[in-house]
Design a protein that fits this description.
alpha+beta; endopeptidase fold (from Nostoc punctiforme); 6-stranded antiparallel beta sheet; rod-shaped
Length: 293
């Protein structure tokens, strides 16, 4: 059986071209789209607010990245360090030079002061030597006078018996002997040196000076202090007279002698540092005294 034929309707010549008209939207579709847009905007705002809160809650830390050291920058740093070290070395060197200069100036000042002191000491020593020479010349003249005055007395005394160091018990004064002559001789020796064992004429020990003084008037005393303390007559220290022999230590074991010259003073060959001097008896009280004139 044959199929029935379907009539063919001819198409318009523009039927294959898509229409450019926008499809009509219904009222419901439009409202739905508007609601979606509003929701999206509100959601975006909410997310933005939350992000802003989160950012505000967290502290902001800024990180600075240091530039990497290049070869030129490394060279500059090394040169700067070397320059700083050199400057420090220069400062130290200058400080050392300043300290050395100050020390040299101080030493020069001290040397100058020492030189002045030495010059003054030499000048003083020369002056003292001059005075000593003048005094010695005066003493020599006095000795010459004493020798001439006592020539007769000493000539007569040369034949007298000499007392020994261990057996002289009493010393007698010859006729014409005087205390003044003894004291004058002693004062003429002031300034002479003290030398242990010396017997004059320019150096003495204590007992040799006493012995030489009394020999001027013909009294021959023992040589040593121990024996000199045993001669003559014992005298109280409260009744001393000019010319009395003073001794220090025990009678018969004295270690030093001198002669009382009046006014609380005595004359003796004291020691190597003093020599022959006049001293106050109050400064060095004697142990006892004997009288031979």
């Amino acid at each position: 059986m044959k199929e029935p034929l379907v009539p063919v309707v001819p198409m318009s010549h523009t039927a294959h071209i898509r229409s450019h008209r926008k499809p009509r939207r219904s009222a419901q579709t439009t409202m739905a789209m508007r609601a979606g847009v509003a929701g999206g905007v509100l959601g975006t705002l909410a997310v933005a607010g939350a992000s802003a809160s989160a950012v505000a809650a967290e502290p902001v830390t800024q990180t600075l990245e240091l530039p990497a050291l290049t070869a030129d920058l490394s060279t500059q740093v090394a040169q700067s360090a070397e320059a700083t070290q050199q400057a420090a070395a220069n400062y130290q060197l200058q400080a050392e030079r300043d300290a050395a200069a100050a020390k040299a100036a101080k030493e020069a000042k001290a040397d100058l002061a020492e030189a002045k002191e030495k010059a003054e000491a030499k000048k003083k020593a020369a002056e003292e030597a001059r005075k000593a020479a003048a005094e010695r010349a005066t003493r020599d003249a006095e000795r010459a006078t004493l020798t001439a005055d006592s020539g007769t007395t000493t000539a007569a005394a040369t034949t007298a018996t000499t007392a020994t160091a261990s057996a002289a018990a009493t010393a007698s004064a010859p006729a014409g002997g005087s205390v003044a002559t003894v004291v004058s001789f002693l004062k003429a020796q002031v300034g002479d040196a003290y030398v242990m064992g010396a017997t004059g004429p320019n150096a003495w020990d204590c007992s040799s000076l006493v012995q030489a003084a009394f020999r001027q008037v013909g009294v021959d005393l023992p040589r040593v202090s121990q024996d000199q303390s045993t001669v003559g007559t014992d005298v109280s220290l409260s009744n001393l007279q000019v010319g009395d022999i003073l001794y220090w230590g025990g009678k018969g074991s004295a270690y030093h002698t001198g002669v009382y010259i009046g006014d609380g003073q005595y004359l003796d060959a004291a020691n190597p540092s003093k020599g022959v001097v006049i001293q106050d008896l109050s400064g060095y009280p004697a142990s006892g005294a004997v009288r031979v004139l």
